[in-house]
Amino acid sequence: MGKLLVVSHPEVVVEPETPIAEWGLSEIGRARAHTFAQSQTMSCVTDIWSSTERKASETAAILAKRLGLVAKSEPGLGENDRSATGFLPPSIFESAADTFFGAPNSSFRGWETAHAAQLRIVQTVLSIGKNHDGRDLAIVTHGAVGTLLWCHLAGKEIDRRFDQSGQGHFWRADIKTLQPEFGWRPIA
């Protein structure tokens, strides 16, 4: 029975002057991705898709290389659009993320709403899954949209308590039913 693995990129190099979508993986993030690529969890993956954001595509490339695959990319797998604010210092970002999850129909200072981001990620993953062969499929994306996808598939209201506790996590679902088997777990 095939599995859907939803993977969030691990740690990045924070560059406040660079657009967030262009941030790349840090050395720690790369090491964690390489470790996860060699794990039993990834061993049966036959197809990998990622967000077009650099940190996700770098993660997907590391995972794909180990399996002899080429990762495909899809803009619909991107993180919630936060370009209206750009980089926010950690304390302000955490408060903004609380608002994003806590008021899913409202935009925080021009951000894409949680409901809009959820609809986008769900439609994108369903479209990718429709054309998949039923074996293990990995989707490399981001924490917020990965959480929104999990909430939808698990039949839960949008709530930050289901969010990952840092970067570089995964959750797994049955590929046919898309029912999540568990919430976020660290990749390595």
From TrEMBL:
It comes from the Bacteria. It holds the Pfam family His_Phos_1. InterPro entries: His_Pase_superF_clade-1 (IPR013078), His_PPase_superfam (IPR029033). Gene3D superfamilies: Phosphoglycerate mutase-like. It comes from Ruegeria denitrificans. This is Alpha-ribazole phosphatase.
